[in-house]
Amino acid sequence: MILGLAPATSQAQSILHRLERAARSAAERTAERKVEEKVEEGVSKAIDKAFEEKENEEESKAETTGKTDKDKNSRSASRKASENQDLEYDDWDLEDEDKDMIKRTGQTGSYRRTSDSPAGSQAPASASPQNRRAEMEWAKSDFVPGDVIFFEDNLAGEKLGEFPSRWDVIEGNAEIVRLDGENAIMLLNDARIAPFMSDQQRYLPEDFTLEFDFYLAPWEEAFEETGEYPYSDYILNMYNDYGGEWDTVTMQVMEMTMDPRAKNLLFFYYSGSYDHRDASLESVDYHYGGWMHVAVSFNKRALKVYLDGLRVINLPNVAAPQRFEIGQGWGIENTWYIRNIRLAKGAVPLYDRMMQDGKFISYGITFDVAKSVIKPESAGELNRIVQLMKENPSLRFSVEGHTDATGSASSNQTLSEARAEAVVARLVEMGIDRSRLSAKGLGQNNPIADNSTDEGRAKNRRVEFVKL
């Protein structure tokens, strides 16, 4: 009887925990909204007051000088401009505190006076909202995977319907399915799974990267009204032993829930001093109708999270995790799928590797399966290479593509050549002179690891930059 009640009790505790977390997050967001509304109200009143005072002044001048109301009407129209447009002011000034508030809140876009620029002139292209966003996103594409891969599972050779052979189940269930022509893990029954390791408790080093793909169903506008999106929350939990004080690694130092239905990312964690903190996000840009790539980078105490190569979480002080679990949260059955899980250690500076070996190997430039299309999450590694070459203008590289031994030798040779050419073309697009680069494909001919293991094949699929 007791055994029969245990799973139900565990599930009830899990549900209560989620409800408590959701309530706490909702309360905090409500408080934040109230503060924002108060600030907006203050800004609006300040702007309205300033415009009214100026209009009264103009009316008084018009009565004595015979001026028309044309300028007044023009300013009134300007005041009613959209919040997303820049408001332009004449040569009169707002109070300093009002200016400061406008600048701090960004409520009216950029603040500028019409006399600051010649008539008819436009702001530089780089100042446009679109370009500012592009520059910001490019700056946030700084993910670099670790150099030493110590766990890689692309689910090759797994049997459909079976539990994934390289994983342990903590709770629920999971099985291998075929989705979009590739093997994937389907999570079932409130599942939580962890990779098999020689030490199941403490296998994450002090600096590591974790990556995997997760699937999102297509989004339709009708879902906004009906709420019928076939949603699936994905959970990533990390644990440690409370700084060595506990015998078991059960201290949950990080809890991340990707919630595509609400377009949120819930993120709770413990700092290095073990105080609980919240770094949750709203209005997350999930890409529906296909696979998304999530990556976590941890370096001693700094942690970053990326979605499709774009950094969304950046924390300077997080308690060091020692193991992790991937699981499912709220959602509809048969909607949780993950694949291409990789763990790697370290990230040695490119210049140091090049000076030591006369070349460096990149695992951060990745491609679509059996194609030469560079994935978005490669942006961080490409940025590093461009920076290295710009800082060292005499450097020239032979870009050499390598594959594992899966498939035929001839197809692998062709694929490696196409991938090397694709990398060169991308670097040229990013500002590197073509004369400094050459492309070569070596197929499966130069393995550096055992092709009979997943980790070995992952190491063999690489791009090398050989100094010329």
Note down, in words, how this protein is organized.
This protein has nine helices and 19 strands. It is of the alpha+beta class. It has three domains: 2-114, no CATH class; 144-347, Jelly Rolls; 348-468, 60s Ribosomal Protein L30, Chain: A, CATH 3.30.1330. Strands 3, 4, 5, 6, 7, 8, 9, 10, 11, 12, 13, 14 and 15 form a 13-stranded antiparallel β-sheet that branches. Strands 16-19-17-18 form a four-stranded mixed β-sheet. The chain has a two-stranded parallel sheet with strand order 1-2. Helix 1 (2-65) packs antiparallel against helix 2 and helix 1 packs antiparallel against helix 3 (96-105). The N and C termini lie far apart (72 Å). Residues 1-14, 65-95 and 97-138 have low confidence and may be disordered.
Question: Descriptors for this entry?
Answer:
19 strands, 3 domains, 468 residues, disordered N terminus, 9 helices, 60s Ribosomal Protein L30, Chain: A, Jelly Rolls, alpha+beta
